[in-house]
Amino acid sequence: MKVGVAVPQMATEYGPGTTVSWARAIDDGPFSSVSAGERVTFSNPEMVATLAACAAVTERVRVFANLWVLPQHPMAMVAQQIGTLDQLSHGRLDVAVGVGARDDDYRALGAEVRNRHARLDAQVAELRSLLAGEPPFDGADPVGPAVVQPGGPQILAGAVGPKAMRRAAQWADGISGFSIAADPAEIGKVNALAETCWQDAGRAGAPRKVNGTFVAVGVPDSVETLHAFTARYLSFLGPKLAEAIAATARTSSPDALRAALDGAEEAGCDEMIVVPATTDLRCLDVVADVVASRG
């Protein structure tokens, strides 16, 4: 199983030099990808610009947009951004897409929340057409730049439940899930559902299966750091629920991280994404040691 690392864009200490220093260190480590996600009404830097910087200063790791909330955006712009990122990374781009969970982001961007699941299905089809070089309308030129990877990057689905998974099986190359508790049973259930839905849809081959979890290791007060980060990230759910879910986050020691990675591999993951709860690079050093020790 591969292990990727997200830049800690949701941590409160994220600053002007964090993206470049973390991306370079991830590229130097035993990791498969560097990733960033999309969130608008929060303290994080914007996803596409962040990934562009990561692409420019790395040479080896995949660059992973995890997760792009497609119903918030026009597809011609997304296609141009994907083409640009694929070009900057020399064909190292992967993309996960979904509908998101934060209505405030939709409102902030002036996007419609209703029918977003059905719109996602149609948008992926439109996006693939644009990435294949089809013009956005009759008489228009294609959206550029052209992608480096033939056919464009892999598109994974941020699907978890049965209904969303069945829809994703019609168009996705795989799935990208998340488990705050890094629970192998939870991860395995999602992976098994994906396998079943892909088979039911008559898809050739198995879906790529990616998952992730929040991590705080190698830093003082790692338990408190992980809990505070998770509760703050989930604050849009309300303080009571955010605190309850944050209490399930346990990946705050090297042993816990090793167990989480072992469990994810046993659950059938192809890649596990470590999402640091701190900008302290000592966290990445410990993550690197754990990953290297697994062979």
Automatic annotation (TrEMBL):
- Work out whether the entry's keyword set contains Plastid: no
Q: Name one GO biological process term.
A: alkanesulfonate catabolic process
> What GO molecular function terms would the record report?
alkanesulfonate monooxygenase activity
Respond yes or no to whether keyword Flavoprotein is given for this record.
yes
Q: Where is the Luciferase-like domain?
A: 15-229
Supply the Pfam families for this chain: Bac_luciferase (PF00296)
Q: Which UniProt keywords apply?
A: Flavoprotein, FMN, Monooxygenase, Oxidoreductase
Return the protein name: LLM class flavin-dependent oxidoreductase
Q: Could you tell me which species this protein originates from? A: Aeromicrobium terrae
Spell out the InterPro entries in the cross-references. Luciferase-like_dom, Luciferase-like_sf, SsuD_RutA_monooxygenase
